[in-house]
C-alpha cells in the first residue's frame, strides 16, 4: 500500500520554486533528510533531466524524479512535493509540472512494490488531482490510505 | 498465438518505464491478452530482442531506424492512451 512509503517527513506541499531544478532538489532533500540517499543522488537526479530530457514528466503536471542506485541511493525511499505554481521541465506533452514524486532504491528491484503501489494509486486521475490540491499532510495521508 | 516481447524504455529503465509497464500490463490483463513485458534503459534498449516498443517522445528517436513498431505514449499512467495507441499493434503481433 502506498501509505507504507509515505510519512509526514517526506511530504512537502505548495512549495514555491522557480525552476525545475529547484523542484527536483526539493524532492531530493526530503529523501536525503529521511536518510534514504546521499547528497550525490540529488545532483544525479538533476543531471538525469539535463542529459535525457524531460521524459520523466510522465503524465500531465507530474514528474517522477530519480537517478540510478549507484548514484547514491541508500534505501528505498519516496517523497512527494507539490508546487504552488507550475514549472516547466521541457516536456512538450506534459508541462507545466505541479507535482514532483522522487524516489530512490539501492538496487534495480527493491522499489518495484513501491512503484506498483504508486502506479495503482496514480492511475486514477482523481487521485492525482487529490494530491495536487491537498492543503495538508493529513489530507495526503488519508487519501493514500 | 505468439507471446510477443513488449519493451518499455526510459532513461534508466527502472522508473518511468516501470510505471509504463504496469499500465501496459493492466491493459493486457483487461483485454485477456498475454505478452512478455519488460523494461530497458536508453543504452541497452537497442541491443534487446523485442517485438514492439512503448516509450516517450523524448526516447522515440532511439528507434528511428528499427522496423519494429514503436508506440509513443505521452501519459504513462493512461490506460486509455495505451489502449488506443497500443492495443491494435499488440493484437496484430499476438495473432500473427
Automatic annotation (TrEMBL), chain B:
This is PTS sugar transporter subunit IIB. It comes from Bellilinea caldifistulae. PROSITE patterns: PTS_EIIB_TYPE_2 (PS51099). CDD domains: PTS_IIB_ascorbate (cd05563). The lineage of its organism: Bacteria, Bacillati, Chloroflexota, Anaerolineae, Anaerolineales. The keyword RNA-binding does not apply. GO terms for molecular function: protein-N(PI)-phosphohistidine-sugar phosphotransferase activity. GO terms for biological process: phosphoenolpyruvate-dependent sugar phosphotransferase system. Residues 4-94 form the PTS EIIB type-2 domain. Keywords: Sugar transport, Transferase, Transport. It comes from the Bacteria. InterPro entries: PTS_EIIB-like_sf, PTS_EIIB_2, PTS_EIIB_2/3.
